[in-house]
């Protein structure tokens, strides 16, 4: 009985110890909860005063508060991540109002909360649309088109997508004019063709800008040695806009004579110096041939090089060499026709490379 009574006397002390621990934990949890509540309120004050970065950092820190000490204020901990993301939206809106759309868009791209992503995407689309209009108002249509492309990538609402579709052809025309002024006709023509195809309302504006763009494109292609493409561009200009000054220039370029060059050598590959010519017509006769003019003359130098500076478009011309007091040509025995016919096409210089004298 003494032992039993002794044990009964010890139970109250154990219960008191457990109670003290419970009270201590409760007090600590209450303190932690109060601290969390205060931190959440401070984050709200920071956001309200425009200190968005500090507010977000504090909200993110609150979101990491886990464990038994924070059981007294789970609402602030649970809401912290969402509040942090919502503050990103508020911060982005403030940046947009201050004329910093790109910085605002970067912030919006970091919104990942499923309940806010649609709003963030819509805000980004609106930001880009406003920025595009501002770029266009400054005459920077290239930048404006990039903004519209960014909007399209966001899969915007039907209303914004419709506005993008309406603005794109207008900006295409504006950007094309700027590119033409810089000599980039190739890209300018591509944009004008897109504008005319996308919106009938822009067809007239595109048609008005096309002659200058086509001429710039042809000159650009000539500089790039893309002669076939340049000829096609000039032919389009000549045929589609015949009464323009650019079309007159196109006709002149298409008629312009082209240089014919080459190197005259013997069968061993040594250079041959002498007189050479190109004849306009070649006729076969029994036992031989003869050529008629107009004739175009040149001479090969010590290195065998010859150069006809400007030969009219046409051909085939017959290449002849003055040897032994007579003009001779190279005849292909299988066809009985000149072996080195020269055809001159618009814009395209002709290089005969090496022409070897027969034995």
Task: Note the topology.
Elements: H1 2-48, H2 52-63, H3 74-97, H4 101-109, H5 117-137, H6 141-153, H7 158-181, H8 185-198, H9 203-223, H10 227-240, H11 245-255, E1 258-265, E2 274-285, E3 288-300, E4 305-311, E5 314-323, E6 326-329, E7 331-332, E8 337-338, E9 342-344, E10 350-356
Parallel strand pairs: 1-10
Antiparallel strand pairs: 1-4, 2-3, 2-5, 5-6, 5-9, 7-8
Describe it for me?
The protein has 359 residues and is of the alpha+beta class. It has three domains: 12-106; 116-255, Serine Threonine Protein Phosphatase 5, Tetratricopeptide repeat, CATH 1.25.40; 259-356, Carboxypeptidase-like, regulatory domain (Immunoglobulin-like), CATH 2.60.40. It is built from eleven helices and ten strands. It has helices at 2-48, 52-63, 74-97, 101-109, 117-137, 141-153, 158-181, 185-198, 203-223, 227-240, 245-255, and strands spanning 258-265, 274-285, 288-300, 305-311, 314-323, 326-329, 331-332, 337-338, 342-344, 350-356. Strands 2, 3, 5, 6 and 9 form a five-stranded antiparallel sheet that branches. A three-stranded mixed sheet has the order 4-1-10, with no helix packed on it. β2 (274-285) and β3 form a beta hairpin. α1 packs antiparallel against α2 (52-63). The model is unreliable at 15-32 and 67-73 (pLDDT under 50).
Concise account of the structure shown:
The protein is α+β, with helices and mostly antiparallel strands and 359 residues long.
Keywords for this entry:
single chain; 359 residues; alpha+beta; Serine Threonine Protein Phosphatase 5, Tetratricopeptide repeat; Immunoglobulin-like; 3 domains; five-stranded antiparallel sheet; three-stranded mixed sheet; 11 helices; 10 strands; elongated
């Amino acid at each position: 009985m003494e032992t039993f009574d002794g044990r009964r006397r010890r139970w109250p002390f154990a219960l008191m110890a457990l109670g003290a621990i419970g009270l201590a934990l409760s007090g600590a949890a209450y303190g932690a909860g109060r601290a969390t509540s205060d931190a959440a309120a401070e984050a709200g004050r920071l956001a309200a005063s425009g200190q968005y970065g500090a507010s977000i950092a504090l909200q993110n820190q609150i979101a990491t508060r886990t464990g038994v000490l924070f059981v007294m204020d789970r609402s602030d901990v649970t809401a912290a991540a969402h509040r942090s993301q919502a503050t990103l939206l508020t911060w982005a809106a403030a940046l947009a109002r201050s004329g910093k759309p790109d910085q605002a868009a970067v912030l919006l791209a970091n919104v990942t909360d499923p309940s806010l992503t649609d709003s963030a995407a819509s805000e980004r689309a609106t930001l880009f649309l406003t920025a595009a209009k501002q770029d266009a108002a400054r005459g920077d249509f290239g930048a404006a088109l990039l903004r519209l492309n960014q909007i399209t990538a966001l899969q915007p609402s039907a209303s914004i997508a419709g506005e993008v579709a309406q603005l794109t052809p207008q900006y295409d025309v504006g950007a094309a004019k700027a590119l033409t002024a810089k000599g980039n006709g190739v890209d300018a023509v591509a944009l004008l063709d897109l504008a005319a195809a996308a919106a009938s309302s822009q067809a007239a504006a595109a048609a008005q800008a096309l002659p200058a763009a086509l001429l710039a494109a042809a000159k650009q292609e000539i500089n790039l040695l893309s002669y076939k493409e340049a000829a096609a561009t000039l032919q389009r200009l000549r045929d589609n806009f015949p009464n323009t000054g650019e079309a007159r220039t196109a006709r002149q370029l298409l008629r312009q004579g082209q240089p014919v060059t080459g190197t005259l050598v013997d069968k061993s590959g040594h250079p041959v110096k002498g007189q050479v010519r190109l004849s306009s017509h070649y006729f076969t006769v029994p036992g031989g041939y003869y050529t008629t003019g107009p004739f175009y003359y040149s001479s090969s130098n010590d290195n065998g090089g010859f150069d006809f500076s400007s030969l009219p478009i046409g051909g085939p011309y017959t290449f002849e060499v003055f040897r032994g007091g007579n003009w001779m040509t190279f005849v292909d025995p299988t066809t009985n026709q000149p072996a080195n016919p020269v055809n001159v096409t618009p814009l395209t210089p002709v290089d005969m490379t090496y022409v070897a004298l027969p034995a």
